[in-house]
Amino acid sequence: MELFLLVLLGGLVALDSTSFGQFMLSRPIVAGALAGAVLGDPVTGLLVGAFLDLFILPVLPVGGARFHEGGPSAVVASAVAVSGGGPGAWVLGLVAGLLWSVLGGMSVRGLRRWNGRLAPDPNDRSLTEARIVRRHLLAMGADFTRGIGLTAIGFAVWLPWAVHAAAAWPLGAMETVALAALASAVPLGMLLSILGPSSRRLGYLVLGILLGLLPTLFP
Amino acid sequence: MLGSGFGFCFLPVLRELERRAAEGGKEEERGAALRRHVEHFNAHPYLSGLALGATARMELDGASPEEVRRFKMAIRGPLGSVGDRLIWAAWLPATLLGAMTLALLGTPWWFAIVTFLVVYNSLHLRLRTWSVRVGLEKGPSVAETLRRANLIGRAERIASIGVLFVGLLVGLLVGRGLAAGISHVIWPWLPVGALLLVASIGRGRELWAWAVAGLLAVVGGVLILGISGIAT
Asked: Per the structure, how many domains does chain B have?
């Protein structure tokens, strides 16, 4: 039952990503936490989703850019992290999410090519209102189905072995998070570029770092 | 699918045009209007309502098909670039980084998520409704309204808050690591992290692929050490 709900969630967040709503339920931090909640551990889902989001965020869906898809991949990442338990499963969930986000992006591009063929021809004199409605809904249905398929395949590929492999992970929880945090320095740097010229906003960055250190310096 | 999506949203306007044509006793070729609005169109989804509303106003006011087509061609570029800068490059990163900061500060998991969804969608939904309303009111002069709204200026201010959140995240991550008693891990690797962050500024997507490949290699290596029993 839980897997069925998660696969359905994968389809819904795929739909939210572009085709319908864009309410950002498809952001990994949201989708990961929701998937974790279905499995009874939303905090682990939130943590793996947040790191996955940090990696995906700098790859913007601008123009014809090849961006990665976060929603279904976060559901897969969260399921691996929660099902395995412990830092090993968490980091394998993050790895699964990253790889699945790339695969998800490829499947989105494939669907868009198909949508291009499906789009009504403006020169077709027999074009009717009913045909536009039908094709529009068909494209949305295809996106939902793609999300379901991507999530289900992700479970089939990752869950059987990642849960067992996670038991052999030798690092503790904080060391594992530190490793992921170190790797996330790259997307954070890329994000600074996206947010604008860093020289003009250096003061904001330094102020943020100092504020972030405050709870540690003055517990 | 933005082309046929535009046509899909335009169907109520076409029905109104058909009704008016029938009342006026004119033979309106509905198919021609329908075909005009499934032509290729691409803009930022949250601001495309400006084009949709303005085009509807033009059609209802009896603008010629050529005028409508020229307007749609001219407006889609600015709508795309302004929307991308405001939403994808400022509002989304700033609100997401805010949610991550809340999560790291130890708030309940649902609080970070609900706060993000409410704050993000407050602007998202406002932009969607504002753009259709303004488009319908202003018609082809909507470009002037877009310029006066100064959305790029707003994006710049939001981006500054985003940079503040990047700093907060870095500070919180380092601080939490030190507080958790893994300073032996943090101190040697902190310069490496700082170097990676600075080196990534201004770099493109190729570095993203290298970062992911590096993470995969390290995770794979540590896992092999764990499985072989070298590291326990």
From this structure: 1
In a domain, B107, yes or no: yes
Per the structure, how many domains does chain A have?
Answer: 2
Confirm whether B31 is domain-assigned: no
Q: Are residues A208 and A107 in the same domain?
A: no
Residues of B in contact with A134 (CB under 8 A): none
**What value does the mean pLDDT take over residues B153-166?**
93
- Average model confidence (pLDDT) across chain B: 86
**A197 within some domain:** yes
Residue A123 lies in a domain: yes
Higher pLDDT, A74 or A20: A74
Chain B residue closest in CA terms to A119: B4
Cβ contacts of A201 on chain B, cutoff 8 Å: 159-160, 163
Identify whether residues A22 and A99 lie together within a single domain: yes
Judge whether A131 is closer than 8 Å to chain B, CB to CB. Answer: no
Does the pLDDT of residue B25 top 60, yes or no?
A: no
Q: What is the pLDDT of residues A13-69, one digit of tens each?
A: 999 998 888 999 999 999 999 999 999 999 999 999 999 999 999 887 776 667 889
* A186–chain B nearest CA distance, Å: 5
Query: For an interface test with B, which of A192, A193, A199, A210 has the most B Cβ atoms less than 10 Å from its Cβ?
Result: A192
Distance from the Cα of A195 to chain B's closest Cα (Å) equals 5
Specify if A177 maps to a domain. Answer: no
Structural domain that includes position A46? 2-171
Instruction: Give the structural domain span for B114.
Output: 42-201
* Residues in A touching B162 (Cβ below 8 Å): 191, 195
Mutate to test the interface with B, among A205, A206, A217 (most CBs of B within 10 A): A205
Do residues A198 and A135 share a domain?
no
CA distance A131 to chain B (A): 10
DSSP chain B: -HHHHHHHHHHHHHHHHHHHHHHTT----HHHHHHHTTS-----TTTHHHHHHHHHHHHHTT--HHHHHHHHHHHHHHHHHHHIIIIIIIIHHHHHHHHHHHHHTT--HHHHHHHHHHHHHHHHHHHHHHHHHHHHHHGGGHHHHHHHTTHHHHHHHHHHHHHHHHHHHHHHHHHHHHHTT-HHHHHHHHHHHHHHHHHHTT--HHHHHHHHHHHHHHHHHHHHHHHHTS--
Do A103 and A16 fall into the same domain? yes
> Does ipTM exceed 0.90?
yes
Same domain (yes/no): A119, A22: yes
